[in-house]
């Protein structure tokens, strides 16, 4: 790709990546190819790199909290804007899923 950028420019290299590399990812699960051990710390690192405040975690929805199979939805907010939301069987699991 680097040689293509030098010989033909960034636009041509971008087309190559789109046509030949990204097309190979269709139907594949990103989490199978790139396991993220600690998604929240990765998110915090990326927000810090962009000079944004730390994410604020809020419970947005819950269903069946007094049953055997509860579902919680946690939203991650940055500058009072929802940046991610994730479900989980516990609040901690939902927070981790939202950070992914």
Automatic annotation (TrEMBL):
One of its GO terms (cellular component) is ribosome. Gene3D superfamilies: 3.30.160.20. The keyword Isomerase does not apply. It is found in: Mitochondrion. Residues 34-100 form the Large ribosomal subunit protein mL44 dsRNA binding domain. It holds the Pfam family DSRM_MRPL44. SUPFAM superfamilies: dsRNA-binding domain-like. Keywords: Mitochondrion, Ribonucleoprotein, Ribosomal protein, Transit peptide. It comes from the Eukaryota. Signal peptide: none annotated. GO terms for molecular function: double-stranded RNA binding. The keyword Nuclease does not apply. Belongs to the ribonuclease III family. Mitochondrion-specific ribosomal protein mL44 subfamily. This is Large ribosomal subunit protein mL44. It comes from Pipa carvalhoi.
